[in-house]
Amino acid sequence: MSGTPEQELLSRTALGTFRLNGQFLAVSEELARPAGLTAAWWQVVGAVLHEPLPVAGIARTMGITRQSVQRIADLLVTKGLAEYAANPAHRRAKLLRPTEAGREAVRRIEPGHAALAARLAAELGEAEFAETVRVLERLSAALEAVGAVGAVTEP
Question: Which Gene3D superfamilies has this protein been placed in (predicted)?
């Protein structure tokens, strides 16, 4: 590949991230399946476990489109895993919250999730695992800071 060293680093970072995304999606599907969830359903229910959120808020947190979250949220409500509640801050943007069945489904995932986390921590070491999280969070913040998310422009 031709280009600057920075372009090479960006390309390698992107390719590595795409591969990680695929790996995380595959393992998430595997963990979620016995609980009757898909990875996407688990992701949306997980986003509202601690506090109800509007669909747009879930989408911002997850970095995906509002329409994708809306489709999944509606499915979760139909399946009885989540419900819509009134939003005191915005009449039209209802809040999504898990039902007890949704919470129970996520609880069934926790043992496999904990086992995978322990195996990764053992493979990487606690300090390197924490550093990985820090670097990924820093990269995400840097992409937002340079305006790369939503509008790629010439320098």
Answer: Winged helix-like DNA-binding domain superfamily/Winged helix DNA-binding domain (1.10.10.10)
